[in-house]
User: What shape does this take?
Amino acid sequence: MVLLSTFLFDWCQWLQHTPLATTINESVWLFPLIEGSHILALPISVGMIVMFDLRLLGLVTGTKVTNQFLRWSKFGFAVMLITGVFLFITQADKAYGNPFFRTKMLLLLLLGINAAVYQLMFYPKMSQWDLAGKTPAGARFCAGLSLIVWVGVIVCGRTMAYEF
Ligand code: HEM
Assistant: This one.
């Protein structure tokens, strides 16, 4: 365990001194541009996912609109992921030791598992149960969990930024 921790910390320090990380850190406009995109992509990714979750919970209606939301959320999520990695490499050693960053990564992993469960167990027959207006309890559970965990990711992201 200690060995893994030392390896990861050394890797973070190496990452932070790569030419790409140094270029972003030394540029006047690159870091704000990346951080701005990270924040602006938030409503496109998480906002759209929230709308989809609310529909599964029966709190909003409209199949066509929410399916389109999901398409946009994939684009937003890709932007968040790419800009997040760029932000990380510029301050990898600080982020590595930060409990909020670690929690955020764990929550993102949990969200990935939750999304995979939904995709494998409920999505293949969605057109049937959705048309009948009978959302399975398991799909509702995935939606509720997703809503709660996304709030956690945002809170951790913001709190972590305060600490840097
Ligand atoms: C995909 C879902 C994600 C969401 C919803 C999210 C959300 C946030 C939020 C709300 C902030 C605070 C920004 C501010 O107010 O300054 C933030 C900052 C940050 N995020 Fe993310 N993030 C995501 C993914 C990632 C990933 C995948 C990484 C890295 C691998 C990452 C790394 C960072 C870093 C390093 C900061 C701090 C930037 C600073 O110095 O201010 N994020 N994130």
Notes: The two ends are 26 Å apart (CA to CA). The chain has a mean pLDDT of 93. The chain has one domain: 2-163.
